[in-house]
Amino acid sequence: MDKFVIEGGRPLRGEVRCSGSKNSALPILAATLLCDGECVIRGVPRLRDVDTLLAILGELGAETRREENGDIVTRVVDLEPVTARYELVSTMRASFCVLGPLVGRRRRARVSLPGGCVIGIRPVDLHIRGLRALGADVRIDAGYIVAEAPRLRGTEIYLGGQFGSTVTGTGNVLMAAVLAEGRTVIDNVACEPEVQDLARFLVATGARIEGIGTHRLVVDGVKTLHGVEWTVIPDRIEAGTFLLAGAITRGAVTVTGCLTEHVSSLLATLREIGVRVESAPTQCRVEAGAGFRPLHVTTLPYPGFPTDLQAQMMALLCLGDGISVVTERIYPDRFMHVAELNRMGADIRKEGSTALIHGVDALSGAKVMASDLRASAALVIAGLAAGGETEVQRVYHIDRGYDRIVEKLTGLGACMERVDDKKLVASATDSEG
Fold first, then answer.
1. CA dihedral over 188, 189, 193, 197, signed as positive or negative
2. So what's the pLDDT on residue 429?
């Protein structure tokens, strides 16, 4: 199993280009199941999650290929398969987004309940509520969502839940509604940039959707959708991670190819703690000095502070002056990184959905274990700032969401490498023999 070995204490400097958005590419690729003809999706990052979804699409009757330039081409050739297997869906939650397209176009689906990162309970009740409102018969059978809908009819749907709107649920219900009969009005939808990108992709294929970017979508059903060429938006979470890496190492990092409006809450937060921020529409630059002011930050749906940057922000606040408070409103159990940051010398105490962070003068390198995708990123950037050597184990998590992260960070001056533990063990055994 691979691990990252990081020699910390070096300020990151230079430019890094943002990849396409994972959280945009995955539902858009799933949405190609709705289309007649060929779709060409550009800007798709090279990630394990993308490979998993392409495998699922292949089993659902789609031919897919990645061109040399990175574009992914899809074409549906068989409308009969409707089962998305546990062995694939259980590895990432985003693969559950094939449910809506299957119900919408094929009128039946059998999709495993989702897996993914261990960040707390993430129910699918809103997905089920929306599909049932459209006329689908939905039940859970042996760990699978089974949905049948001889006919889908437009209706009014409210997608409010305990923790607000649902990003994946919005996508699933929207993808089912675009081929339903009549008008569907979906209230309290998520309005994250990735949801907007999916909706605009669907409009490009022939769907009729109004209200994109608001909490109310109005969908007038059409009979068919056609293939298109589409470029996914830049990954705002990757951009934010690199900006935080530059700040925590007291460096100067410019992220290009991003959309600044999508990271506005992070930029405001960085300015608040004393980081110098410069921005243009498609690039951001951070430069950090000696200290960081304490901060109270709460994760909220877009355009609030993103939950997917909470762990990375916490790593930075470990080196702040005074006491900072981080409250998690999206996934209240998303604090698996706290214990590992404390192993590196941080002083964090969790109380319910809130973490109290007492700033320390320095972090020290240690062996730490990644528990999920964003926790992995937090441990990496903490290691970049820590004194001595940090080993981050279980880095397969980070491979799910960051395209060539070692290459990009070393390009900024990081001393970091990926090491295969098996090869190290084999080498040690050979030398002993």
1. negative
2. 40
